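Troubleshooting log. The previous structure file for this entry was overwritten by mistake, so regenerating from the original sequence record. Sequence copied from the archived sheet and checked twice against the printout by T.R.
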Amino acid sequence: MACAGTTTWGGLVRAGLKAGETAALVEAGRGLGHAGCQFAKAMALQVVGIDARDKGLDLARTSGAQIVIDARGGKEKVVEGVRKVTDGLGVDSALTVSDTPDTAALACAITKMQRRMVQIAQPPDVSILITVKTNPFFGLQEIPNLVELAHRGKMAGKGVLIVDEDEIRKEKERRQVS
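Regenerated output below.
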């Protein structure tokens, strides 16, 4: 419990979850992950365990994950699976206990807007502890301020909202055509 326990427990505490909310553990079927599943279950959280191995999925399930999702299908399948079990919203918090570089992006993709992703394990190319929080648009009440800013001539070009890589590719093609 000393190192792995306090590390995972600290991540759950930083996630700021309340009983009944949903926590996902990315790489739930290994040392830190299965401890996190047990702690999350003890905190009365709904637990989603994500792993890419049969043994890992089994361990996550026996450690308290009510829902397990196989990551071997790729990021899109994991996101689809999480959305399916969370009414399309995503989890209240995702904890990444994997040091695989692409798991932080996965954890962000499955987390509800304005909620928290906690990176516990550190990939080799990350040298500082970081907290990733979503930063969505503040709401409809801000539209007049945005329009006023644009009308003052403080912006150049046209605004483009980039949704995904396909949209980026399409926008680049449109630029070449015009």
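Confidence is low (pLDDT under 50) at residues 126-130, 132-139. Archived copy saved in two places this time.
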